[in-house]
Design a protein that fits this description.
The complex is a heterodimer of chains A (272) and B (251). By secondary structure, chain A is an alpha/beta fold. Chain A contains six helices and 13 strands. Classes of the chains: A alpha/beta (272), B alpha+beta (251). Chains A and B meet through strand 12 of A and helix 4, strand 4, strand 5 and helix 6 of B.
């Protein structure tokens, strides 16, 4: 039983963590991550914004863009440049990414914070903006449960992967489908216990590809502070950081190679 | 001296007000009772200090309508924009959030303290969504008993309570939108240049929380005008569509 006594959906598949085969890949965590820091890898956080003044976020940073829905024009409006994180969630994700990838370049893509209408379109546009901005990794600790967004988000996911962008998505916190976390082209992440930024478990069966710390985890929040929270949201940035670290060492890797290597170096992977 | 259209528009506004009042009057009391019952049952099942249900209004504000436990009376009626706070985050993201130690989230603490004089340590908040996948509110549980047997499945349980709350809120919303439905139906029907149609142009358009209902009403009005054969065809199509939807509905 955890201190908060709660588990998000899909995390139970990792407690206990099943053994998964490496597929014979001759790689190790040391080969993948040692002597790397994420340097030179742009990582977009598509979320509520990033408070770049938070001590946990300090490092290379690009203000990015704030996107919102213009109901009159029925179109997405983009304002590039600095913006606030009004909730703390995006700052939390950014701070977590810094733990294993301290030198990566964080890019804030704010898609939440205004009105609810047009939310799905704003979300999809945020992904497109991040791809066009040159992100190599996108952290998506958000998802849409709207079936009407299925096709559009599927298209954007393909655009990302075809552009060589690693899309890391948090699984839904409740046992219901959400997009794009359900798609096979993304790296989907559920929460497990622990706080080690290098803790990584591979899933034995879909839909969750991996688990990383996200249960009763101390995370950066508003006004330079922290809270202790639980959610698949906080697991995904751990994996985004490991992907950035891997790409800083092996920049030519494709998203599928990144996924295969992460699986082979997971803590529960066995050589067979 | 006011124009005749202004006077007629005034009458229509009064008519809409009357419809709104009638909507409130005829709302089944069970809808509100069910919402109150959901938050009270949730508080008891979770062994929590408090539980509340905030309802999303048409200005994207969360209005705390139902509450049970510590600070319940004080928080009812409190309005919070969805652009701040943890409940706002849940509304925006459509994702549940579970915080076991609010630490120094002063913004959250201040909001709650101002409203209820109760400062929680832990919080679980889940989105309340209609069958059409639209957000209609947020269910918040404060300081639940995390040591209870089965507490690790509380998020699933909270989602069940949220589904119950969504059903009750949907019934409630249908009655509270009677005024807008009436006006939009009249606006659609009166397009003949009559005094009524001119007056209706002076009245704010319908919309609100049941835009799909307004659209359906508008389409039905058009079909009604098209002729008796078209009406019969439309009824047949609608029945076929309903059968198709019912057969194909996901569990």
């Amino acid at each position: 039983m955890t201190a908060g006594g709660i588990r998000p959906a899909w995390s139970e598949a990792f407690d206990p963590a099943p053994e998964v085969p490496t597929g014979g890949l001759p790689v190790s965590a040391a080969w993948a991550f040692d002597d790397a820091d994420g340097g030179g890898v742009p990582v977009a956080v598509v979320d509520s914004g990033i408070d770049e003044t938070h001590p946990a976020v300090a490092g290379p940073f690009r203000p990015g863009v704030a996107l919102s829905w213009d109901g009159d024009r029925r179109a997405v409006t983009a304002v590039e440049g600095p913006h606030e994180d009004m909730y703390g969630h995006g700052t939390a994700c950014a701070g977590i990414i810094r733990r294993a990838a301290p030198a990566c370049e964080l890019i804030s893509v704010r898609v939440l914070g205004a009105r609810l209408s047009g939310r799905g379109e704003v979300f999809a546009e945020g992904l497109r903006w991040a791809i066009a901005a040159g992100a190599r990794v996108i952290n998506l600790s958000l998802s849409s449960n709207k079936s009407e967004m299925f096709a559009q988000l599927h298209d954007v996911t393909d655009e990302a992967v075809h552009a060589g962008v690693v899309l890391v998505c948090a699984m839904n916190n409740v046992p219901a489908p959400s997009y794009p976390s359900q798609y096979s082209a993304v790296i989907s992440v559920a929460a497990c216990e622990g706080a080690d930024p290098f803790r990584l478990l591979a899933g034995a069966a879909p839909p969750a590809d991996f688990a990383a710390p996200g249960i009763d985890l101390e995370i950066p929040w508003l006004a330079g502070g922290t809270i202790t929270a639980t959610g698949n949201s906080f697991a995904a940035p751990h994996v985004a950081a490991l992907a950035a670290r891997l790409l800083s060492k092996y920049p030519t890797m494709t998203p599928y190679q990144v996924k295969a290597v992460l699986r082979a170096v997971a803590g529960n992977a066995v050589p067979r | 001296m006011s124009e005749p259209n202004d006077a007629a528009a005034g009458v229509l506004v009064e008519l809409a007000d009357l419809a709104r009042a009638v909507g409130v009057l005829v709302t089944p009391p069970e809808a509100d009772q069910l919402c109150s019952s959901v938050v009270d049952a949730a508080r008891r099942v979770f062994g929590a200090a408090a539980c509340s249900l905030a309802v999303l209004d048409d200005t994207d504000q969360l209005v705390y309508r139902f509450a049970s436990g510590a600070g319940a009376e004080a928080i009812i009626g409190t309005r919070m924009p969805i652009t701040r706070g943890l409940a706002g985050w849940v509304a925006q993201s459509g994702q549940a959030i579970m915080v076991s130690d609010l630490g120094n989230d002063q913004r959250f603490a201040r909001d709650i303290a101002e409203a209820t004089a109760y400062i929680p340590t832990a919080l679980m908040a889940v989105p309340v969504e209609s069958a059409e996948e639209e957000l209609v509110g947020v269910l918040t549980v404060l300081d639940r008993d995390a040591a209870r047997t089965g507490a690790d499945r509380d998020l699933e349980l909270a989602s069940v309570f949220a589904a119950q709350a969504a059903a009750a809120l949907t019934v409630r919303a249908a009655f509270s939108d009677v005024d807008r439905l009436l006006l939009s139906t009249l606006q659609r029907a009166a397009t003949d240049g009559s005094a009524l149609s001119r007056a209706l142009q002076e009245v704010p358009a319908g919309g609100g929380q049941t835009p799909e209902l307004n659209t359906i009403t508008a389409l039905l009005t058009d079909l009604y005008r098209a002729g008796s054969d078209e009406r019969r065809l439309a009824v047949r199509l609608l029945r076929e569509m309903l059968d198709f939807v019912r057969a194909g509905r996901r569990p």
